[in-house]
From TrEMBL:
Organism the protein comes from: Azospirillum argentinense
The protein, known as: Aminotransferase class V-fold PLP-dependent enzyme
Gene3D superfamilies for the chain: Type I PLP-dependent aspartate aminotransferase-like (Major domain)
Domain of life according to the entry: Bacteria
């Protein structure tokens, strides 16, 4: 039999032995002695709107209390605004919507998409977006430019078409994708699609690449949109002296130079404690309150007060026509109204982030300590090239293993977002068979955050459950590494 030589040989071999790999994972589950009533009831991360984390007692009580009260919702919305202003200053404003994706849509629609009113041909606008992870969210609101990116995704989203997301596309809007210098976009996975591998991103060169794209499309340049994440696995590991991501700063400077908005999608981010909108120069930043922010299902939009007027007007909350400061009415985007309980719960979560940050930071620090301890226990069995990063913005710890491919023909197998959707992500399948709920593990990047059955009602980390989850992650990486060795040695 021919010796395997290429990545496609590795992933073909893994696909052929998927059932055996999952069965080996079952043996790991038995060895870890995970209690039967825990299996499938705790996981590595609560950073997913399809399986949100548990809520702290204060948030639950605020939702229940608010549900029993009668009064204008504009008053609750204004308290959210005051809470945000108390942290960022009076030059910033906020509004709650029903999801971060809804906030992204409203931001694109109101700040970047071209005007359609009036005589004459409609203008076109172009948003410049780094080719990074999760661009099916923040990079899917226009036609892809260059055209080679029009089939960038196989199955992401819910509507068929170019980019897999034809249904989100706004009229006369293009999205200019920019490859990041230092990144790699090799094909990986059983589904076999490009995997953005971003730990090697050169921040200064990447900023210059965004600027070149803006110069090329200057006549139609309408805005910059990036992720707001701050870890090496997302390409934002290079920092200034004050700890701010260099690439974020260059994106903000570019937008300011052209006088266009900079929108940062920080859905998996922690308001107030993570990426600072003021330091990166963003005009608008978006959060999912139900991910690491500790709130109910909702999205939070924070931004400079000028651009926020347009966003709030579109939502129908920026004052009645007869002259009030605030409203809770029916604007063009009333469909993304968050509802009463989400308003009360999000306000409580934001106050907790502002007034008691140690309650949020303690589980992050405890998780980080567990990851480092378990990593040391498994270091001798795992190949070199694994990188562990604590991130307050991400609400936990990033484990990135793309470096295992640097000094050998094959590293630990990398599965793409397409693999996750197709059910061919063997890391996820193995972890689930062990009894731990998987979550974000695309493109050699694993995020561990408290909250997926690993927080007590008062917000303390259940260290026993988290340690089991972390140990399962490293055992799964060992399992996949072992199967890679078998594939490489096959004769």
């Amino acid at each position: 039999m021919t010796q395997p030589r290429f990545r496609l040989d590795l992933y073909r071999y893994l696909a052929a032995h998927a059932a055996d790999i999952v069965e080996d994972a079952a043996a790991i589950g038995r060895d870890l002695a995970i209690p039967e009533d825990w299996r499938g009831r705790f996981g590595i991360s609560a950073s997913n709107s399809s399986a949100p984390g548990t809520l702290r007692r204060e948030v639950l009580e605020a939702i229940a209390g608010g549900a029993r009260e009668y009064g204008p919702l504009a008053a609750v919305g204004d308290e959210i605004r005051r809470t945000v202003k108390s942290v960022y200053g009076d030059g910033y404003d906020a509004v709650l919507v029903n999801s971060a994706e809804a906030g992204l849509w409203v931001a694109y629609e109101t700040l970047i998409a071209p005007s359609h009113v009036g005589r004459g041909d409609a203008a076109r606008a172009k948003a410049v977006v780094p080719y990074e992870r999760h661009v099916e969210h923040h990079g899917s609101y226009g036609r892809p430019v260059p055209a080679l990116y029009k089939d960038l995704f196989a199955d992401r989203g819910a509507t068929a078409g170019e980019l897999g997301l034809l249904g989100r596309r706004l009229e006369n809007l293009d999205v200019v994708f920019v490859r990041l210098p230092g990144a790699r976009y090799d094909l990986h996975g059983i589904k076999s699609y490009p995997a953005p591998l971003l730990t090697g991103v050169d921040a200064e060169a990447a900023g210059a690449a965004l600027a070149r794209a803006a110069d090329i499309h200057a006549a139609e340049f309408g805005g910059v949109v990036t992720l707001g994440y701050d870890t090496p696995g997302y390409g934002y590991g290079t920092r200034d002296a004050d700890g701010t991501s260099v690439l974020h700063r260059r994106a903000g400077e570019l937008a300011a130079r052209y006088g266009v908005p900079y929108v940062a999608d920080n859905a998996w981010g922690t308001p107030f404690l993570g990426t600072d909108i003021r330091r990166i120069g963003a005009d608008v930043m978006l959060f999912s309150m139900d991910k690491v922010a500790g709130g109910p299902t909702a999205g939070l939009v924070i931004g400079r007060e000028g651009p926020m007027v347009s966003i709030r007007r579109a939502l129908g909350v920026h004052g009645e026509r007869f002259g009030t400061v605030s409203a809770h009415g029916k604007g063009s985007h009333v469909a993304v109204d968050p509802g009463k309980e989400a308003l009360y719960g999000s306000l409580a979560a934001l106050r907790l982030l502002r007034d008691a940050p140690e309650r949020i930071l303690a589980p992050i620090d405890a998780t980080h300590a567990i990851v480092l301890d378990e990593f040391e226990r498994h270091r001798g069995a795992l190949w070199e090239g694994i990188r562990v990063t604590r991130s307050v913005n991400a609400g936990g710890v990033e484990i990135n293993y793309e470096g295992t491919w640097e000094h050998r023909p094959w590293g630990i197998p990398i599965f793409t977002h397409e693999d996750r959707i197709a059910g061919s992500n063997l890391f996820n399948r193995a972890l689930a068979r062990i009894g731990v709920v998987p979550n974000l593990s695309d493109d050699a990047n694993i995020l561990l955050t408290p909250g997926a059955g690993t927080l007590t009602e008062d917000g303390r980390l259940d260290e026993t459950r988290m340690r089991l989850a972390v140990r399962a992650v490293f055992r799964t990486l060992e399992l996949l590494q072992g199967w890679t060795e078998r594939a490489a040695g096959r004769g």
